Amino acid sequence: MRVEIIGCSGSVMKGFNTTSILVNGSLLIDAGSAASLIGDRNILDIKDILLTHSHIDHIKDLPFILESIFSTNKGYIDIWASQRTVDTLKDHVFNGLIWPDAQELMGEQGHRLGFKVMDGGSRHVIQDIHVQALEANHIPGAMSYVFEEEGKSIFFSGDTTYTEGILEYLKSIGDGLKACFIETSFPDRMEDLAKKSRHLTPSMAWEWIGTGIHGDVRVIAYHIKPWYLDEVIADLPDGMEYIIGGEVFEF
């Protein structure tokens, strides 16, 4: 499984791009920066987008991705998300006010836009990858995802704080679990704010996931707020990595 970190920042600042993670070149997790950073030809390869939730830093580029894909004669794409997130997109983004109604944009050109519901506990096969959705603890409808391909599993937390049941699920995967990408938005000194906003600090993330899984699993911090990057890096416990965007992993 090839995992390309297009963007992974917890906010926008020059040199920092919000979350978009490309898997195997055609499956995108979140749409925070993909249209801005992926070349025109490569963006047409995206066939499925999985959204963790509806906050703007995770959907910011979604309309422009659709616009690029629908510029071709037979562009199509499926957007996977919880029912709550799908409803939010339809009611508050693709509503003819913030952005044109996406269904109306498709016209008669053979375009297809599908909204596919993936609520917590559901499992789907998307492009030969088994995707398990797990309910996250952030806003209503927020999801975490586990991708499994050829016996290797990768966990993507999305935005969340401690979520009962996720660690137990990850433990059940056993040796097949290879990496956990864990949101780590704030430094340890801001734990109160992290809890109130349902995010994590390095110590919170490590206590939740890092200490509960076997030692061969890579635990990788992402979604770091750029203003606190140096502090978060300094707070990371031994054995916890971090990303800032541009990294490529092969699992």
- In the sheet with the most strands, the strands line up as 6-5-4-3-2-1-14
Question: What are the segments in which pLDDT stays under 50 over at least 5 consecutive residues?
Answer: none
Mean pLDDT metric: 92
Most strands sheet: 7 strands, mixed
Q: List how many beta strands DSSP finds.
A: 14
Q: List the helices and strands in order.
A: EEEHHEHHEHHEEEEEHEHHEHEE
The Rg value, from CA coordinates, equals 17 Å
Beta-strand level of the residues, as a percent range?
25-35%
Shape: globular
Explain what this protein looks like in three dimensions.
The structure is a single chain. By secondary structure, the chain is of the alpha/beta class. The protein has a single domain, classed as Ribonuclease Z/Hydroxyacylglutathione hydrolase-like (Metallo-beta-lactamase, Chain A). 26% of the residues lie in helices and 27% in strands. It has ten helices and 14 strands. It has a seven-stranded mixed beta sheet with strand order 6-5-4-3-2-1-14. A seven-stranded mixed beta sheet has the order 7-8-9-10-11-12-13, covered by helices on one side. Strand 12 (218-222), helix 10 and strand 13 (240-242) form a beta-alpha-beta unit. It is globular. It starts with a strand and ends with a strand. The model has no long low-confidence stretch (mean pLDDT 92).
Brief account:
The chain has ten helices and 14 strands.
Provide the fold topology:
Layout: E1 2-7, E2 20-23, E3 27-29, H1 34-37, H2 40-43, E4 48-50, H3 56-59, H4 62-69, E5 76-81, H5 83-92, H6 102-106, E6 112-117, E7 123-126, E8 129-135, E9 143-149, E10 152-156, H7 166-173, E11 177-183, H8 191-196, H9 202-210, E12 218-222, H10 229-235, E13 240-242, E14 248-250
